[in-house]
From TrEMBL:
SMART domains per the UniProt record, alphabetical: AAA, REC
Protein name as it appears in the record: Two-component system, NtrC family, response regulator
UniProt domain Sigma-54 factor interaction: residue ranges: 138-367
Example GO BP: phosphorelay signal transduction system
Gene source species: Desulfopila aestuarii DSM 18488
Record Pfam families: AAA_lid_14 (PF25601), Response_reg (PF00072), Sigma54_activat (PF00158)
Membrane-spanning intervals of the chain: none
Length: 481
């Protein structure tokens, strides 16, 4: 028997669907608002959700991420009165099973329902054999973060090298630890090497260790980080900062898993699993001869690109929730609530420092409101409030196709008519930006031969954003041929 949730504000349609589902021995619940639907989906355990697009309290498509944010997510069938191809594409991109248009016949409901159940039975039997992923501290329900968690689960069951890229503060170290802690190596060391902080003169001894008397001051034998990582994981943080000499030395260690402590005549071996991370663009660094191509090749067996926070704004609320509880606990104060405009301000900001900056911002807001029960925008740093406000003001750009409004026309001096073919400055800027974006994306697709993963690394764009831009500019990623 399947548990089915119907989210549809149309009482007659929802009732009819529920009856139909119950008549074939499944169990159906019907709710008439999105909010009730999301709550029900998070609390219950549903196999299938029929989701209407136009709901009184919002667009059903916007709720898909939340509906799928449970441990064993349901399959979603979007139902709509008015089919729209971009909505259909969005629904599928967000992870829906299908997008169907009303009117609905019993066959169009029962058939996908049966297929989904068969598919889920298959999934259950696989997941019985697959160990579950412990998300550790990782918060987020967006599609991109779920894709990253899938990649964590897969890499945890392999020994291949992983290269994590992403802007500063996106969680590269957090994800690296999650891979280690979900792997068979979890009971051994997770050794972090911060390549940016490794002094060139001491690098080899720090990595490989040294024998007593190997150099002045070496008054006893010491193990290096590579030896400490034996059986565990070596995390090379900021690998883009490693100098070319060390890159050469490291390449050999990676190839053979052998090293020689400074001052020793014998080689030792270390069975470490390597995870590297960088917030720089390694492909560009190779192109500029700042990074060895052979080393990049070795490091990048499993690439994992973490999206910037601005590309997954739906994660801001759950992250904020988690951080408020964490900060309140550490300050020994009562957990605080927050107003909707507090979250709105956070969502309107661009977060160049990503999740780390959000955490620092929440810390500062909680300290600011130490004796108050609720957080408001006014508790946020002024810079964030100003940027968030100005970003919303900039939104409504003038549309080129829109005729000049009569009251504006009336105010134009007569001789301005000569200039009428010239768009206003805002419109001109928008068009130039559009052209520049399009030209860049075309070049990007050509340079990477349509490879989305490489394109993300080079451009610094997240997958979802890149796909959206390609669609917006009507660029076929294989169109460079
Ligand atoms: N998805 C997430 N859920 C919860 N906390 C997160 C998440 N991503 C990052 N953080 C938190 O944000 C902070 C920064 O994360 P982390 O140090 O892993 O980022 P990073 O990408 O390695 O940064 P850098 O490039 O500057 O070294 C940490 O406190 C981490 O716990």
């Amino acid at each position: 028997m399947a548990n089915v949730l119907i989210i549809d504000d149309d009482l007659e349609m929802g009732g009819m669907l529920a009856e139909l589902v119950n008549s074939v021995d499944h169990h159906a619940e019907h709710v008439t608002t999105l909010q009730a639907g999301v709550q029900e989906a998070l609390e219950g355990s549903y196999d299938v959700i029929f989701l209407d697009v136009r709901m009184p309290d919002g667009c059903g498509l916007d709720a898909i991420d939340q509906l799928l944010g449970v441990e064993f997510p349901p399959e979603i069938i979007v139902i709509t009165g008015q089919g729209d191809s971009s909505d259909a594409e969005l629904a599928i991109t967000k992870g829906a099973w299908d997008y169907i248009q009303k009117p609905l016949s019993p066959k169009r409901i029962i058939q996908p329902l049966n297929r989904i159940l068969k598919y889920r039975d298959g999934l259950r039997s696989i997941s019985r054999h697959e160990p579950k992923l412990d998300r550790e501290e990782i918060v987020g329900t967006s599609t991109v973060i779920r894709e990253c968690l899938d990649a964590v689960a897969k890499s945890a069951h392999s020994s291949a090298n992983v290269l994590i890229t992403g802007e500063t503060g996106t969680g590269k170290e957090l994800f690296a630890r999650a891979i280690h802690n979900n792997s068979e190596r979890r009971d051994r060391n997770f050794i972090v090497i911060d390549c940016a902080a490794l002094p060139e003169t001491l690098a080899e001894s720090a990595l490989f260790g040294h024998e007593k008397g190997a150099f002045t001051g070496a008054d006893r034998t010491a193990r290096g980080l590579i030896s400490l990582a034996d059986g565990g994981t070596l995390f090379l943080d900021e690998v883009g900062e490693m100098n070319l000499n060390l890159q050469k030395v490291f390449l050999r260690v990676l190839q053979e898993h052998k090293y020689r402590p400074v001052g020793s005549k014998t080689e030792r071996s270390s069975d470490f699993r390597l995870i590297a991370a960088t917030n720089r663009n390694p492909v560009l660094m190779v192109q500029n001869s700042l990074f060895r191509e052979d080393l990049l090749y070795r490091l990048n067996s499993i690439p994992l690109t973490l999206p910037p926070l601005r590309a997954r704004k739906e994660d801001i609320e759950p992250l904020t929730n988690r951080f408020i509880s964490r900060v309140c606990r550490s300050l020994h104060c009562e957990p605080k609530d927050f107003s909707p405009e507090f979250i709105e301000t956070l969502q309107n900001y661009d977060w160049p420092g990503n999740v780390r900056q959000l955490l620092n911002t929440v810390e500062s807001a909680v300290s600011e409101a130490l004796y108050e029960p609720t957080l408001f925008s006014k508790h946020l740093p002024r810079e964030i409030r100003i940027k968030a406000v100005t970003s919303t003001i900039r939104q409504p750009e003038t549309n080129a196709a829109e005729p000049v409004r009569p009251e504006r026309e009336a105010r134009l001096p007569a001789d301005t008519n000569e200039l009428s073919p010239l768009p206003n400055f805002k419109e001109h800027r928008r068009m130039v930006m559009q052209q520049a974006e399009k030209a860049y994306l075309k070049k990007l697709m050509k340079a990477t031969r349509g490879d989305i993963r490489k394109s993300c690394i080079i451009s610094g764009l997240g997958r979802t954003r890149l796909y959206t831009l390609l669609k917006e500019h009507d660029i076929d990623r294989m169109g460079w041929e």
